[in-house]
Amino acid sequence: MGKNLLILYVVLYGLELLCEHWLKISIVDYLILYPLGSSGFHLWQIITHGFIHDPGAPLSFVINCLVFYFFAAPVEQALGTKRFLTLFYISAIGGALCGLLFTTVSGFSVPFMGMMPSLLSLIVVFGLLNPEATILLMFILPIKAKYLSYGTVLITFLTFLAKANPHGAYHLGGMLFGYIYFKGPGNVLDPNLLYLKYLQWQYKQKKRRFTVINKDPKKDDDKPTLH
Question: Distance between CA atoms of 78 and 192, rounded to whole angstroms?
Answer without folding.
Answer: 28
